[in-house]
Design brief:
The protein has 422 residues and is α/β, with parallel strands linked by helices. It is 32% helix and 26% strand. The protein is built from twelve helices and 18 strands. An eight-stranded mixed beta sheet has the order 3-6-2-1-9-11-12-10, with helices on both faces. It is globular and about 75 Å long. The model has no long low-confidence stretch (mean pLDDT 95). The structure holds adenosine-5'-diphosphate (ADP), aspartic acid and magnesium ion. Aspartic acid binds at residues 9-10, 41-42, 47, 73, 135-136, 150-154.
Length: 422
């Protein structure tokens, strides 16, 4: 017997037929003697619809009411899943986030989980029930419903897994694992049988939306064994890992780096579209100027991503370039204009419609020349690089958005990640 968390995303609970298939996966694990918490997303498309309605009602709505509206999607799927399970002879009950309770902070619409009391869940499971929990939401200190940001059901699932000390947290989705690139963009992408937490964290934060970033952070911190697997697999199939894997999860296992014997130099290629670039030229250079520029942006809560500062020949002026999401561009420009007196510069230029392309892999720590392959591949396609940033296990470049897909596919080929034609 083990405690297990099974999370089903929007496609997995898109309609009653899909909910029945998801329930059949649950049935298999119950028959194997496990005690189960199921975490569900809203039926696919529902959250988008709810978000649109809140914007249509008023673009300046209260975030607490936004949460009240968008949290409703998961209540529907949790109730339906409990009904379907019961109809199959598997005793089950639904829990809203607040009933668990899943406690969060008060950052409505992007709240963080602050604690989960597992007692209700453990008692129910020990009474023979499957607990079906609404993903994406919890209860704020004020007692009001809060939501965790888009894709937040992954984080709910990992948090529940940590709270009940589950043996594993299985994320059932519409792909059968984590791939070397988004398989919708790079058809030759290959499924990874294992990926290290750190790599998954970089991939999630650099555009691979298969897992929400916070879910990976939490799994890494709490040592939750996390698997990404397909909801479309035959629920009654034998539980074996993909080709060449040494585990029994038919998907990708996200695990500690030292559990991976053969480390790839590059494990993945990702992209994020919709990046705006802002350059301040001829900025008068003195200690504290970067603090003044980025302080002005931070005061307006503008989230800055890539930052590059150049040294000038005479040491008196510098150029500062940074990127922000397109949606934050106007706010950033306004913040810079409003604080003009705090720093001097000659001119400002800006462009929207860029994309950040990244290559990620723990093997980069010990191999030279990984970045130069990236630059060569992009040069061969005639793609200009506007900015470059690196960290220990990733290299990112900013390019024109229209070349994003081409860049991902070409890098995928250059790093030898394409699966063989069959
Ligand atoms: P769910 O609704 O189940 O939470 P999501 O749409 O949030 O599913 O995440 C699954 C999607 O993530 C896939 O359909 C796939 O297109 C996308 N994706 C992006 N990058 C990757 C990757 N590297 N590996 C697998 N899937 C990826
Ligand atoms: N339903 C929410 C969303 O679409 C949460 C989730 O699916 O993870 O973002
Ligand atoms: Mg998701």
């Amino acid at each position: 017997m083990a405690y297990l968390v099974m999370k089903f995303g929007g496609t997995s609970v898109a309609d009653i037929k899909n909910i029945r298939r998801a329930a059949a996966h649950v049935s298999r694990e119950v028959s194997a003697g496990n005690k189960i918490c199921v975490v569900v997303s809203a039926m696919s498309g529902t959250t988008n619809q709810l978000v649109n309605w809140t914007n249509e009602a008023s673009t300046l709505h209260d975030a607490r009411e936004y949460d009240a509206v968008v949290a409703s999607g998961e209540q529907v799927s949790a109730g339906l899943m409990a009904i379907v399970l019961s109809s199959m002879g598997i005793p089950a009950r639904s829990f809203s986030g607040w009933q668990v309770p899943i406690k969060t902070d008060d950052a409505h619409s992007s709240a963080r989980i602050t604690g989960i009391n597992p007692k209700n869940l453990l008692d129910s499971m020990n009474d023979g029930l499957v607990c079906v929990i609404t993903g994406f939401q919890g209860i704020a200190p004020s007692g009001r419903v809060s939501t965790l940001g888009r894709g937040g059901s992954d984080t709910s699932a990992v948090a529940v897994a940590a709270a009940i000390k589950a043996e594993r947290c299985d994320i059932y989705t519409d792909v059968d694992g984590v791939y070397t690139a988004d398989p919708r963009i790079a058809p030759k992408a290959q499924r990874l049988s294992r990926i290290a937490f750190e790599e998954m964290l970089e991939m999630a934060s650099l555009g691979a939306k298969v897992l929400q970033i916070r879910s990976v952070e939490l799994a890494m911190a709490q040592k939750v064994r996390l698997a990404v697997r397909s909801t479309f697999d035959d629920p009654d199939a034998e539980q074996v890992g993909p080709d060449g894997s040494d585990h029994n999860v038919p998907g990708t296992l996200v695990c500690e780096e030292d559990e991976i014997v053969e480390k790839q130099i590059v494990s993945g290629v990702t992209m994020v579209k919709g990046e705006a670039k802002i350059t301040l030229r001829g900025v008068k250079d003195y200690p504290g100027v970067a603090a003044a520029v980025f302080g002005a942006l931070a005061d307006e809560r503008v989230v800055v991503d890539m930052i590059v500062q150049n040294a000038s020949d005479d040491g008196r002026t510098t150029d500062i370039t940074f990127t922000v999401p397109n949606a934050e561009h106007d706010k950033a420009m306004k913040a810079l204009n409003a604080t003009k007196d705090r720093f001097e510069y000659d001119s400002i230029s800006n462009s929207k419609g860029n994309a950040k392309i990244s290559v990620i892999g723990v093997g980069m720590r010990s191999h030279a020349g990984v970045a130069s392959i990236m630059f060569k591949a992009l040069a061969n396609e005639g793609i200009n690089i506007m900015l470059i940033t690196t960290s220990e296990i990733k290299t990112s470049v900013l390019i024109e958005e229209k070349y994003s897909e081409l860049a991902v596919r070409s890098l995928h080929t250059y790093y030898g990640l394409d699966k063989a034609d069959n």
